Amino acid sequence: MKPVKTYFFNLRKFTAVSLVALSSLVIVNIISSGAFINFFQKLYMGYFNDKTALFTVIPLLSSEKDKTYDSIIKVISAFAMIDIENPVEIMKENFTAIAVKQQPEKKETAPQKTVHEEPVSAEPPPVAQTTVNPVNQNGGALEQMGVTVKNETSYQVDVNALYNEPLKITKRTDVPQILIIHTHGSEAFNPTARNVDINNNIVRVGREMKAVFEQNGISVIHSEIMHDIPKYNNSYGKALETITQVLNENPSINIVLDVHRDAITKDDGTPVKVSADINNQETAQVMFVVGTNESGLSHDNWRENLKLAVKCQQAINGVYPKLARPINLRTERFNQHKSYGSLILEVGTHGNSLEEAILAGKYSAQAISNVINSLN
Fold it and tell me: Domain 128-373: which CATH class?
């Protein structure tokens, strides 16, 4: 008869082997699942198709020969354009709201260890299409005209009252009135979600908007700094430094437009583009995002920004129906405490083309110009 101690030893051994076998089965099932394959396929297509990312990472791979932890982190961070050691702040600060489903465009880590020298051809991936309707048929007159607020705060807002109140900003002549910035300047469009070429990312949209404002007699300063390069983390902190400096040097500026592009994906990872037919052209939709002080940061004048967004939304709807998605009211501040006219403008998604986003930016700038030129 075996001693009791031997039975306990065999029992522990049997339990350990069983757990290992069970874990192996779970891992195999996860790896073979369509979601897992789609996840890595999305990462591969999103990053390796971006030649700019390759050109950024390859020199780092050759220079970081010691392969220490810090050097590996440096390479991966440059590749993903995020600080992978601090993903919580990225999630908390940098992702904007979306109407269908929001997913961060970049994961906290980039699992690839090597970079192919031959990039895969950047064929546009399949996308789903939707038109987000801002109209609330059961609302008041403004809501039936498309001036609808998606309120993610605990604050109560009266859209009609805000629309009827005068703005605290006035028309400025012969001096800069608008600052256009890009907190996430590398945001790009189908087929490349990130691009540091300012001719092919959201900065290009800002350039086109600036031209429209100036055609309407409105002076604009456009910062082409990409505050998410080389690291995505703390983009808003870096953008705040730019805003503060420009406003100090140009006190006439009373409108700050932080121009982004949104990101919407379906459950299977398929990009979703938001679009509408404007003047017989397929055009990306836009969305105003307004911050508040509900997160605890000082921002007592957020209603002034919301007031401007409401008036601009009404102006857009009056000229270009279906161009605008509902206004998004958020708990975060988004650097909008620096003026009475600070707004985020989301132009399209990563499923839209650059051409569709440029059209949307131009149409939005024209409608906003109409609001500004109506001021005293």
Answer: alpha beta
